[in-house]
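Reply to thread "Modeling small-molecule complexes from scratch"

Following up on the discussion above, here's a worked example others can learn from. I took a protein sequence and the SMILES for guanosine-5'-diphosphate and predicted the complex. Inputs first:
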Amino acid sequence: MEIKVVRKVLDVNNTIAEQNRKLFANKKVFVLNVMSSPGSGKTTTLGKTISRLMPDVRTAVIVGDVSTTNDADRLAKTGAPVVQVNTDAFGGDCHLAAHVIAKAAESFTLEDVDLLIVENVGNLVCPAEFDIGEDAKVVVLSVTEGEDKPLKYPLMFRVCDAAILNKIDLLPYLEYDKDEAVRNIVQIHPDIPVFEISARTEDGMESWVAWLKEKVKEKLKP
Ligand SMILES: Nc1nc2c(ncn2[C@@H]2O[C@H](COP(=O)(O)OP(=O)(O)O)[C@@H](O)[C@H]2O)c(=O)[nH]1
Ligand SMILES: [Mg+2]
């Protein structure tokens, strides 16, 4: 019984996600869904990423958190239009569902947007299950979270098109086997690109931003 209810929720979500996908295709907007556990560095990474993309790639952001507008305030400093969604209004949902994205996207003039970035609610479980009509999904894993997280949360790593391994500036202070972390990611998702970066020092940012730019360009090509 419970499984049927869950399936129905996901079916309804998938239908709205397809409507979103059509709308974004029609408006030529590339949508990136960014997911991770809380604190792995999504907002910091996105702030630095957007600064490198603008004004060439016109970027807008939807930020999801259970509560507060902290991240929207941080990302608005890049000059990109930002909408904060607080899921405590929806019972404290642990993810952004497709209908929430549809509503939030109404705040933007999509004709003036090339890239819509969605910073999802922080956790490695629910966001992986909800299609929002995006073109690509990215997971951010930081080196303070342990090498085994891809094995513990395999769905997240399976559904993502790229993985960012963040906070590599901290490696000298940790007993962290980076190669093992990358092996675990690739064991779950062979051939997935893994970008080793420090959002703080901006080490490794170029190849990540180049990958994203290429993806956006592919979609915007006439
Ligand atoms: N040392 C270090 N700290 C980072 C890095 N990226 C983010 N942080 C810090 O990690 C904390 C959480 O970052 P935030 O971007 O808010 O993570 P989010 O919850 O995933 O959006 C903040 O204190 C950041 O300053 C990094 O590359 N290196
Ligand atoms: Mg954040």
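What I'd highlight from this example: The chain has a mean pLDDT of 95. The pocket of magnesium ion (ligand 2) is lined by residues 42-43, 71, 119 (CB under 6 Å). Questions welcome below.
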